[in-house]
């Protein structure tokens, strides 16, 4: 399969990338290309210009700033997955990354690209929301910060403006127990359902693959708030999570199957938390 015709631009910095995006409403930023290019091949996306930001050095930094893990949007997923800094400061992110596609995809795909793509079944979107992360974006009017919980608005749609580039992800470093689980037909396939779980001063459960965006599971969170993670409590929370969702009915799974998968994923993730 071939993509529709397009022009290609390789800016030298973020400022030039922003100008290129602002000059053509049909232009699209290209990072790792692991999601965008297949969509173009299937004619689901038809950008007039691909603005390649995948090799900009200013987007490739991975560092700690006091109590914040800062991940440049262009950091490869495999780089973050194998980073000692990520393992020490944000283990949930490493857990989530191991479920993203296959090794080859993670070697090309970027952290920022996955978030900007906003796939409802994306592991990184769920992890960023559960970790209360923020993204920094740069546009023609300057920089602004968006909480991850406000970034994803619909399937493959974010609150970024057309001229904005996601430049970095900022994850608070906190003492927390975490767990991550997904149910998929095969390793590397898109999840039928999954969950990212974080227990610190509050409980945060974020499901994915169960609707148009990743979503908090407040009923299940309330069942766990201030309680020990005993088996009965875990089962109750898992059932509440499943009962509170309205998954889609598509060729991959019907709603009942997705609810069952979510229930199992919540149980697995919370057992990881309990054993942490």
Automatic annotation (TrEMBL):
Name the InterPro entries for this protein.
CO_DH_flav_C (IPR005107), CO_DH_flav_C_dom_sf (IPR036683), Diverse_Substr_Oxidored (IPR051312), FAD-bd_PCMH (IPR016166), FAD-bd_PCMH-like_sf (IPR036318), FAD-bd_PCMH_sub1 (IPR016167), FAD-bd_PCMH_sub2 (IPR016169), Mopterin_DH_FAD-bd (IPR002346)
What SMART domains does this protein map onto? CO_deh_flav_C (SM01092)
- Domain FAD-binding PCMH-type, first and last residues per copy: 1-176
Identify the keywords attached in UniProt to this record, alphabetized.
FAD, Flavoprotein, Oxidoreductase
Classification via Pfam families: CO_deh_flav_C, FAD_binding_5
Does the keyword Oxidoreductase belong to this entry? Answer: yes
Quote the protein name from its UniProt record: FAD binding domain-containing protein
Q: Which organism is it from?
A: Saccharopolyspora oryzae
């Amino acid at each position: 399969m071939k993509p529709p015709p397009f022009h290609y631009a390789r800016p030298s910095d973020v400022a030039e990338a922003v100008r290129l995006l602002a000059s053509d409403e049909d232009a699209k930023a290209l990072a790792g290309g692991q999601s965008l290019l297949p969509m173009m091949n299937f004619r689901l996306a038809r950008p007039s210009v691909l603005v390649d930001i995948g090799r900009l050095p200013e987007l490739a930094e991975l560092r700690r700033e006091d109590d914040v893990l800062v991940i440049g949007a262009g950091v490869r997923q495999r780089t973050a997955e194998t980073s000692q800094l990520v393992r020490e400061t944000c283990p949930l992110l490493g857990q989530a990354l191991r479920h993203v596609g296959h090794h080859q995809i993670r070697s090309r795909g970027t952290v920022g690209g996955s978030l900007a793509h906003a796939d409802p079944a994306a592991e990184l979107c769920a992890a960023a929301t559960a970790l209360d992360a923020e993204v920094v974006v740069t546009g023609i009017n300057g920089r602004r910060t968006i909480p991850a919980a406000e970034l994803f608005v619909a399937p493959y749609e974010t609150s970024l403006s057309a001229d904005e580039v996601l430049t970095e992800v900022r994850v608070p470093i906190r003492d927390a127990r975490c767990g991550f689980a997904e149910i998929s037909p095969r390793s590397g396939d898109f999840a039928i359902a999954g969950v990212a779980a974080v227990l610190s001063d509050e409980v945060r459960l974020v499901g994915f693959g169960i609707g148009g965006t990743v979503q908090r599971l407040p009923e299940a969170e309330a069942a766990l708030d201030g309680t020990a993670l005993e088996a009965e409590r875990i089962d109750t929370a898992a059932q509440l999570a499943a009962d509170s969702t309205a998954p889609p009915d598509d060729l991959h799974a019907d709603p009942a199957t997705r609810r069952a998968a979510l229930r199992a994923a919540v149980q697995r993730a919370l057992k990881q938390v309990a054993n942490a």
